[in-house]
UniProtKB/TrEMBL annotation:
Residues 30-59 are annotated as: NMP. This is Adenylate kinase. Belongs to the adenylate kinase family. ATP binds at residues 10-15, 127, 178. The gene is adk. Monomer. One of its GO terms (cellular component) is cytoplasm. PROSITE patterns: ADENYLATE_KINASE (PS00113).
């Protein structure tokens, strides 16, 4: 099963991906996590990505597409994967289509978590508070300024990715404002429904 989760920062992609890993036994490929690992390890990619990530901007398509192309070649991705945080631009979506076409392994589902942008800031603030309470390290881009930039990047560059999949009838939208368990249920329903009947949301 090859699944993409779309939605703005704070929409709950990571939360749902974690659950899907457990239920479907496929890996979560989070470009954010992969890039943070590269930054922590001080690799050439990490050095290039560090500042732009901390400011809330997008890392170049070239770097991110390269990371994903390598990652989906790994053995654990053979049976499928959940992409979280990728594609984030139409160029990335086109590159992914080309990669999967060459492997004859099309996407099974593109699911957007639809959320009201007004609540996203509060969700991030909650994540920061929980991280601090548990003694963890707060992400450098989980602050008000960087979050504004992340949201702006989402509106400008990532929202068109939803249109890209909508135009080819591959986009399915769930209500990301519902409680976590309800969102999970909506996703499960979509994944078990015949793929010939995509649920489409009017923009
Ligand atoms: P969020 O929780 O905001 O969705 P992620 O953990 O997915 O954030 O990503 C954190 C940062 O990593 C992004 O703000 C961006 O700088 C970089 N990044 C992650 N995925 C991509 C991508 N597909 N293209 C470009 N930059 C990316």
């Amino acid at each position: 099963m090859r699944i993409i989760l779309l939605g703005p920062p704070g929409a709950g992609k990571g939360t749902q991906a974690t659950r899907l890993i457990a239920t479907h036994g496929i890996p979560q490929l989070s470009t954010g996590d992969m890039l943070r690992a590269a930054v922590a390890a001080g690799t050439p990619t990490g050095l290039k990505a560090k500042d732009v990530m901390a400011a809330g901007g997008l890392v170049s398509d070239e770097i991110v597409i390269g990371i994903v192309a390598d990652r989906i070649e790994e053995e654990d991705a053979n049976r499928g994967f959940i992409l979280d945080g990728f594609p984030r631009t139409v160029a990335q979506a086109e590159a992914l289509d080309a990669m999967l076409k060459s492997k004859d392994k099309p996407l099974d589902a593109v699911i957007e978590l639809g959320v009201d942008e007004a609540i996203l800031g509060a969700r991030i603030a909650k994540r920061v508070a929980e991280t601090i309470a548990s003694g963890g390290t707060v992400r450098p881009d989980d602050n008000a300024d960087a979050f504004k930039t992340r949201l702006a990047a989402y509106r400008e560059l990532t929202a068109p990715v939803s249109d890209y999949y909508r135009q080819t009838c591959r986009l399915q939208v769930v209500d990301g404002m519902a409680p976590i368990a309800d969102v999970s249920q909506q996703i499960d329903r979509l994944l078990s429904a015949p793929s010939s009947e995509p649920m489409r949301k009017q923009a």
